Amino acid sequence: MSFETYIARRYFRSGRFFVSVSTWFTIAGVALGVAVVCFVMSMHNGFESEIRSRLLGTTSHITIFPYRGGFISEYRQLVDRLEQFDHVVAASPFVYYKAAVSSASSGDGIIVRGVDLAQERQTANIGSSIRAGAYTFEPTVMIDDTVPGILLGNGLAERLGVYIGDPVVLYSMRGEELRRNIRPRVAKFYVSGIFETGMYEFDGQLAYISIESAQDLFRTGDVATAVHLKLDDIYLAETVAPVIDSVLDYRYDVVPWHVLHRNLFSWIAIEKKVLFLGFSLIVIVAAFSIVSTLVMTTMEKRPEIGILKTIGSTPWTILKIFVYKGMMIGIIGVLAGWALALGAGFAQNQWEIVSLPPDIYFVSYLPIESHVLDFLIAGVVTFLVCFLAALYPAAQAARLSVIHVLRQ
């Protein structure tokens, strides 16, 4: 241990009551600033990760649309070809369109997705999101009529007032000419399963039927609206998508997940940066407390500074002593802030203390995901701020005149 470090530690532990209390309040301010910054960044990491996993659990990693709208007629051959690409785990076609739905007690406008359950299970997580009933479209007999199954989001099922086995009716006007006396096409289903993805937009507006039923209801013929692709690594979507587009001779719109949901994830990234800068002001306020604490320490330790200079200590030595004390405040504050942020994050994930309105934030609670890099950035920035804040009072202490101090 160096001489300067030893004296700085003695100064840190000693002092009059007001100076000692001021030091601990300063540490508390630094710890609070670091904890808030780390917690906010962890909150955004968790929010982004949760949104990404739930979105990709429904929309998959790459989506292939027909060029300039329309439909994909050769979707079976396309699926077989896509599954031959490197990093592609599975592909599944689907038909996607709007429809009206009604039950015995209510009605609503929804999005209907026609899928092949076996292929959809390989590219999406709807099968594992079933909360009631079964992941099936197997038909059943209802009042001497064979009725296929439909999967409803739990929010939609609640609005319609239906449960497993209850009948619902879908209505579609797609493909009809808008003329007088036209009637919508009607298809009857029974609720075979209710899923819950945790995404309000999906659970409240989405229904799944078989791709054959969707083709018949929407009068599309034997075609698909788009094809989902699941990769072995979601972060390869940006590099795999151009390769697929090139091999397919640019006849389709190959859209990776980060482009399909660009607005949402761009908003999350910008908000994270803005909140980081905003909450960093807490650390800057704590830095002013460091200045005041070290100035008070300088005034209290004037006799000791005079003695240190008398026995041969240089101004550089005195400066290092007070800078080291400021750095000790910063180190203890950073470590305490990290501990506070980790503890608060653990409590939130364990007991979901803070809940969110799902119709606004997509998820029902505030998820926390701590990243080491974020903690290191917050810690290093705080330490540098504390170091810079300690320079001015340290320089003032180093410039004290020995003769002036001893005369007093």
Structural class: alpha+beta
Shape: elongated
Taking all residues together, what is the mean pLDDT? 89
Question: How many beta-strand segments?
Answer: 12
Distance between the termini: 32 Å
Helix content: 40-55%
Output the strand order for the largest sheet: 2-3-10-7-9-8
User: Helix tally?
Assistant: 15
Concise overview:
By secondary structure, the chain is α+β, with helices and mostly antiparallel strands. It contains 15 helices and twelve strands.
Write structural notes for this entry.
- With 408 residues, the protein is α+β, with helices and mostly antiparallel strands.
- It folds into two domains: 3-55 and 264-407, no CATH class; 68-250, no CATH class.
- The protein has 15 helices and twelve strands.
- It has helices at residues 3-13, 17-59, 75-82, 117-123, 154-160, 200-203, 211-217, 237-247, 257-260, 262-300, 302-310, 315-351, 358-361, 372-398, 402-407, and strands at residues 62-66, 88-102, 107-115, 130-133, 140-141, 146-147, 149-153, 167-172, 185-195, 206-210, 226-231, 252-256.
- The strands form two sheets. Strands 2-3-10-7-9-8 form a six-stranded mixed barrel, surrounded by four helices. A two-stranded antiparallel ribbon has the order 5-6.
- A hairpin with a 4-residue loop joins strand 2 (88-102) and strand 3.
- The chain is elongated.
- The model has no long low-confidence stretch (mean pLDDT 89).
